[in-house]
């Protein structure tokens, strides 16, 4: 059975951190524990080396070896999507090929800054598709970071023109209407279905599921919440899904802080015993003592609230 | 007794909408009802003609007449802060003078785009202070909209150099550490105290109060929550404040959508009977039918949650 | 005979400064002298209240009275285009109506920041066309300032959908291929001709004429050069046009400095006896003593070079 | 004798292209010819792997091998500066160490996007200095590309705090006053001298030399002009320097087109027999047939003008 991503992929593709030890080297042991942890929570896939995954701070050979290691550990149980966004197509093609050879399920591509008309973006994505060969692509629509605004019309054009663009990582902001439109205007007439997984730190996950998302692709450090919210929703328990989501919302909101969120997530994963160190490569955000106390308070409030709910 | 803003101002300064009728003209009757509503919730002040208050879409004489009208209706019960940010200092000085003549409590100024070194910003704020005379100023630190990044050092320099800059509308993002630092590094040595009111749609209000904010200056359409959270916090009930805040968080998060948030707030105020129309001047955001349903659901979930809590 | 702008408008539409006296008030006497000066150099039109014309720093009634004054002085000899870009459509409609009533030849509109997909831009321009009625529109494509990237396809869509959009102020950068494409892909099939006047401080005027521009719309303080270059080009003297242009290029390059260019242009106009003061409204750029010396040197080198050429 | 850059470095440090063959691989033969060509024109140094040198599109090991190759070919005749700007400090440190081991004269660093207060920038540059060890640094002030605005005060603070920051690549825009201020406010009191080389495609080279620049660091494809202008200026022939510069200005202006300029420079170098192919790695700018004709015309006009001058 193939573990490639496809137009009906759903569930939670967790955005995985890259664990480093205190010296800044990749911590492969923690990577193994992290993979096991994610799989135990019930995720449907992993996405590694994303924009938030410190990929731009890794050397090319480091990225490849991390990808191979994770893919091997996952061992085909779920698809692994590899972020390959890069300034040059050669580097993108190299990482994509290495990842797919190792058994990846697809690659994720965000447009480079500067692809700022739909004509330029379409031309760029055609080059990307050629560069990565037949590899299935998750298109990351993340204008807050890339500066590239993409209309619904363009998203549809991309998935029609390039059958390998099968998935949308939706994180335009605010973007609820955009999600509704992509859902309504695909899988109809000549336009194929598209898997829609939502990002933006899951701040609107309940609403996004109600509007037709297939799941989430984000890095919330309590993946079990994402998995349960998506599962309850798919089971028809819309209110139950939103109740659970709202209980976690104070923490979702806290992790969603741009930049700092990465440090928070790694610290939560460390506290939960998933990774050995919350080290972020320089230059990078760091939590200070006050932030640490605040996180302790928020984690403890979350525990209390979950007990109330159960 | 003076109703000017000062270095110890606290509580909730609600960011007021500008109500329009369906034709787009200022709806002064709704303005009166809105003022009464805000005062009944217990706010400590009103801020009108802010960046979100559609001021840039009003003619200069409209803005002046709206300011005069609101100030008259408030009638000295709380201070009214008038947003006077403008591309030119002449226009700023004119609106400031007209507002202060009418009895305003101060003006709010955000730096113009382009004041993008601290040297330029300091020079600009010196010009602003001269242009508005002795008027107390609330400095709005809102880089997401202005593009002007302001360090803690610069904020302190501004309030030291210009005694009239007495208040900070804190809405850098992420900005919790910045708030902590401004609190710690003012009211000490030669640096005077500064009133810190937080913006950013109150997404972190509980955390911000815990870090020493004096209150909030934002436009959440349930001002009673803001008032109670600040009051509970000031009364020492830190957990109770955060519990209440978290109950409203799904709605806070929903209103916080950039651009669309204005339409949502006006619609909530309309549904609550505060203003007659949710009209936003063109070009502006609009809620569609799906958004309307979603809002209905969220409002109803909020009611349910509040009942659980009480 | 009508003096409205149209799809075959050509020549030089000079971007006019707004002269202020030392106190910052509009200097109507200088405005008269400036109009006379421009007309004597042979310009085909005037454009007032552009982005560089300090319009955002003027009150609404000031802008209207300046527009009426200039239009009256021009007295129908050439079309006057009035910049009406504004954050709100109400303000835009008001200035447009007042200007057209006074005898303007059309209005110029740049998209508001935020209209950053072609779908949003098209919707915005449809609203603009409705707001200004039948008025002929010059669409200003100036992404460096507006942040709005516009593709050739969108420009063509706009002029096809809205017959009143008859002129393009071309100042995308770098934009030579864009100009070539708009020229090649209009006036063909169902797409009507479009007048193309180039901006960007005329830094590429010779090349742009060679690629099919109809003329220039910029504020170079030696309009006689613009007029002669366009005239020579239209007379078939391509090399002579470029020789003359190159002689002025050091000064064109000097005036093209973003922001400061406005102060330089006003100072050159003052030195040439056209306006009484080089005052720029605050906050605004100012030349220091070193800049003044440098300008003196450049003006003197220009004189010398022109003598060599003649 | 050391060939490290220092606080009195002057002359022309040419920004070198990275020659590729038609397949996109590094063309080391062309690199050799290019090095020889640059040295024959009399440059005082070479700068490789700059922002415009396609470094972000090269793999880490490619960049290292290119640096080693060029440094070996130069063989100590002039200093070679290596651009090491990178998202992560680890990658920066690695390329810096490899280059210095091979005999480089220093490294060039531009701040990463996001270092957008002076406090953040200072902290970042302290990390950079630690990461690259004792290596002399050329600080690249290029806000148009990095988005990081740097005040004169900050530049001075950096060179005072970090003795290894010995050189400024000046390319803020407009930036003439900034250059004057850095020149006046260094080499005085406790502030050491700083070498100032100007970038920005040399569009203002004559003016910048007159304001005290030590030379140029840019990639104009006729380096002999840069060398002669700087030499004439240093010999006291200010007018002669500017006359020569102005003759080349139409071409300087043409090459200065953002993005496309790289393709133009490579094509000029190819036409001049310096490199075998004008290949730019994807995604990248490309000249079309019309651009090619235009370049031919401009090159031929330049030849004619140079004959007139001689």
Automatic annotation (TrEMBL), chains A, B, C, D:
Pyruvate binds at residue 217. One of its GO terms (molecular function) is 4-hydroxy-tetrahydrodipicolinate synthase activity. It holds the Pfam family DHDPS. It comes from the Bacteria. SMART domains: DHDPS. GO terms for cellular component: cytosol. It is an enzyme of class 4 (lyase). Keywords: Lyase. Its EC number is 4.3.3.7. Belongs to the DapA family. This is 4-hydroxy-tetrahydrodipicolinate synthase.
């Amino acid at each position: 059975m193939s573990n490639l991503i496809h137009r009906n992929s759903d569930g939670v593709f967790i955005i995985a951190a890259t664990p480093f030890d205190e010296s800044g080297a990749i911590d492969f042991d923690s990577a193994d524990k992290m993979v096991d942890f994610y799989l135990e929570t019930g995720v449907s896939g992993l996405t590694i080396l994303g924009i938030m995954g410190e990929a731009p701070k890794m050397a090319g050979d480091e990225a490849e070896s991390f990808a191979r290691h994770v893919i091997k550990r996952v061992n085909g149980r779920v698809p692994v999507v590899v972020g390959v966004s890069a300034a040059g197509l050669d580097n993108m093609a190299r990482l994509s090929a290495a990842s797919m050879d190792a058994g990846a399920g697809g690659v994720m591509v965000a447009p480079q800054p500067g692809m700022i008309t739909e004509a330029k973006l379409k031309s760029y994505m055609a080059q990307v598709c050629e560069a990565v060969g037949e590899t299935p692509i998750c298109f990351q629509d993340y204008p807050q970071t890339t500066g590239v605004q993409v209309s619904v019309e363009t998203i549809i054009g991309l998935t029609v023109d390039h059958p390998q663009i099968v998935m949308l990582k939706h994180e335009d902001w605010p973007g609820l209407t955009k999600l509704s439109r992509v859902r309504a205007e695909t899988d109809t007439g000549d336009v194929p279905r598209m898997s829609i997984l939502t990002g933006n730190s899951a701040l609107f996950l309940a609403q996004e599921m109600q509007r037709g998302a297939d799941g989430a692709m984000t890095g919330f450090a309590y993946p079990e919440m994402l998995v349960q919210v998506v599962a309850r929703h798919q089971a028809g328990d819309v209110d139950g899904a939103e109740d659970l989501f709202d209980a976690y919302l104070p923490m979702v909101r806290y992790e969603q802080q741009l930049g700092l969120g990465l440090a928070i997530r790694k610290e939560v994963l460390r506290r939960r015993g998933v990774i050995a160190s919350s080290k972020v490569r320089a230059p990078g955000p760091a939590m200070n003592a006050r932030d640490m106390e605040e996180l302790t308070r928020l984690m403890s409030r979350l525990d209390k609230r979950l007990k109330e709910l159960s």
